[in-house]
Design goal:
Length: 417
């Protein structure tokens, strides 16, 4: 029987690193046309550059757009294959990430009360993964902000694994390229990414929940922006003056979207949806953003056609007002791209088993930079890093699961070596 190499992670260093990162506000902004979309993401980019240099990593680069590269050098001259690890710097714009106050709880069971003025609780009944984590450390915000474990847990895991490998020169492994991207939460995680700088043909994102999970399939995703150009006039004399209220026209379009199917509230598993999530404007012009999601890419065309048919009907009904739908591609299901390198999944499973975990391949009702990277010909499944309840003030992270994620990365480096 082969006894796995013992790996002892400095958990205190891992936790301190994670707490340091989550306190930095790095929310992205999809309405911005800059790269990165927010200058505050650069605060963490610069810190990561400094920390990579302090660890003695090679080829450290901070690009103007905030992307950070570094290399953990291989341990000898053998022609070991190289891999890359990726996590994203930004946090979701869906809930505030300003003035994050992380709290470390020694979890002993039951609900977790968040001490902020919100009075929120993380309910054990709604978070079954908590049951296996009694006696371990759980990190939350105070309930007034995001925690930012999506994806600063992934960043902390990667940096801790890099530190460990640098401190253990006897571990045989090839070069490992690190890549921290920006604007993942708004679908632009690989905009401006020079894929050749990944230096490897295969890698892993650290951006999945829990422990022991290998995401090998994602949604395919498009963004629809519906713009209504109305006809304005002063409301005191609008009668008979041809007012076409863009807000009302847009409200009518929303009311005609399916309510019992093709909506997040009524779908699960492999069912897709249309999700209107942002609206702005006034009588003269109003704009709606809708995300289109399905595991079958061809379904996105059907959802787009549904929106365009509604737009055409309303344009006719409210002429000369116009309703226009613009569709933007976001990312595609990583499923087919992973077939190009079957070892990516096989080796991840092996590393998890050697780390004492039961690997679970699954699909996720979302996407990662791994989907975009895979689409470019670099197979990149997504691995657990201890985060839970992303995009919510009820977000939490397990320090034990983060520790196991570090061990998985170290064993992955060894396995590819």
């Amino acid at each position: 029987m082969c006894i796995p190499y013992m790996i002892n992670i400095d958990v205190n260093s891992l936790l301190e690193r994670f707490l340091r990162y989550v306190k930095i506000d790095t929310q992205s902004d999809e309405k911005s046309d800059t790269s990165p979309s927010t200058a505050r993401q650069l605060d963490l980019s610069r810190l990561l550059e400094r920390e990579c240099r302090a660890l003695g990593l090679d080829d450290v680069i901070l690009e103007e757009n905030g992307i950070v590269f570094a290399t953990i050098p291989g341990t000898n001259s053998h022609a070991y294959e190289s891999i890359f690890w990726n996590s994203h710097i930004d946090t979701s714009p869906e809930y505030t990430g300003t003035n994050v106050n992380p709290i470390v709880h020694k979890y002993e069971g039951g609900d977790i009360a968040l001490p902020g003025k919100s009075g929120m609780k993380i309910l054990a009944a709604e978070n079954p993964d908590l049951a296996k984590l009694k006696g371990t450390a759980i990190v939350t915000s105070d309930g007034t902000t995001l925690l930012g474990a999506d994806d600063k847990a992934g960043i902390a895991v990667i940096m801790t694994a890099a530190e460990y490998l640098k401190s253990q020169p006897d571990i045989p492994h090839g070069p490992v390229r690190i890549c921290f991207t920006v604007d993942e939460e708004i679908g632009r995680g690989t905009v401006g990414l020079d894929f050749k700088k990944l230096g490897s043909k295969c890698g892993y994102t650290l951006d999945s929940q829990g422990s022991g999970i290998i995401d090998n399939e994602t949604f395919s995703a498009d963004l629809a922006v519906v713009t209504v150009s109305g006809i304005n006039s002063h409301p005191s004399e609008a009668k008979g003056r041809g007012m076409k209220n863009a807000v009302k026209i847009l409200a009518k379009l929303i009311s005609q979207l399916p309510e019992e199917y093709l909506t997040p509230e009524k779908t699960d598993g492999r069912e897709g949806f249309l999700h209107p999530y942002s609206i702005e404007g006034g009588v003269a012009e109003a704009r709606l953003r809708i995300i289109l999601r399905d595991f079958e890419t061809t379904k996105l065309e059907e959802y787009a056609r549904l929106l365009k048919d509604l737009a055409d009907q309303l344009s006719t009904e409210y002429f000369p007002a116009k309703v226009v739908v613009k569709i933007t591609k976001q990312y595609r299901n990583m499923r087919e791209g992973l077939d190009k390198e079957p070892r990516a999944i096989a080796f991840a499973k092996e590393a998890m088993v050697k780390s004492g975990l039961e690997p679970k391949c699954q699909y996720i009702r979302g996407g990662t930079d791994g989907a975009l990277i895979t689409e470019q010909g670099y197979p990149c499944p997504n691995l657990s890093c201890g985060q839970h309840n992303p995009h919510s003030p009820l977000e939490w992270a397990s320090v034990w699961e983060m520790e196991k994620a570090v061990e998985v990365l170290v064993r992955l480096a060894m396995t590819w070596g």
